Amino acid sequence: MDKILKQQKRKPNDIVYTPLSVAKLMIKMCDIKETDKVLDPCKGGGIFYNNLPKCEKYWCEIDKKKDFFEWNKKVDLIIGNPPYSMWNKWLEHTIKYCDKFCYIFGVVNLDPKRIKYLNENGFYIKKMTFVRIDWWFLYSIIVLFEKDYNGDVIFENIGERILCDICNKRCGRGQTRKGVKQSPNICYLETLKKNKKK
Question: Do residues 135 and 106 touch, judged by C-beta distance below 8 A?
Fold first, then answer.
């Protein structure tokens, strides 16, 4: 576990918080029932976990020493925003312990090789949508995979633009300003206000 924690610390781009509106959209896509067992595999600040409807819910979080790769119980759904540098390992572990999962992929991360791997293991796309999170790289794809699903793919909210969830503007969050890379987890306008007060 310490090895994974050190990897996390070396890869700051893996720690990018999901906007509340995106977490709620993903939760809605999953049609969670009260009897469902749901796992948030990388809880962070709880944006998924805290907004799940009434259900039997669990969480993992490497910073709280509850490593997802040590999870070994079956659940109905796994939902979250995994660290992008670990996609293959993450998907491999995910499909061992659920019948469906909903993740947000960068547009370059949901490639044919990964889809083929999931299909070969019985997981197929049930629902998907594209979102443009203003401070993330290109488009992101929210995908709900379900074991043995054989129906049509349902597309929802295609191309929705997500503005900063703090100021509700295109504030420049996560971009390079005056030669300094801004944090993708902090509103740029809030940073300017704090700096003016100093």
Answer: no
The predicted model scores a pTM of 0.84
Domain ranges within the chain, ordered by starting residue? 2-162, 171-198
Residue type present at position 5: L
Q: Quick check: 155 and 169 in contact, CB under 8 A?
A: no
* pLDDT recorded at residue 95: 98
- Maximal CA-CA distance, the chain: 58
CATH superfamily of 2-162: Vaccinia Virus protein VP39 (3.40.50.150)
Q: Contact, 76 vs 98, CB < 8 A? A: yes
- Number of neighbours of residue 29 by Cβ within 10 angstroms: 20
Gyration radius (Cα) of the chain, Å: 17
Contact, 133 vs 180, CB < 8 A? no
Instruction: State the 10-residue block means of pLDDT for the chain, 198 residues long.
Output: 43 71 94 98 95 98 94 98 91 98 92 96 96 80 96 82 81 74 76 69
Cβ-based neighbour number of residue 116 at 10 Å:
10
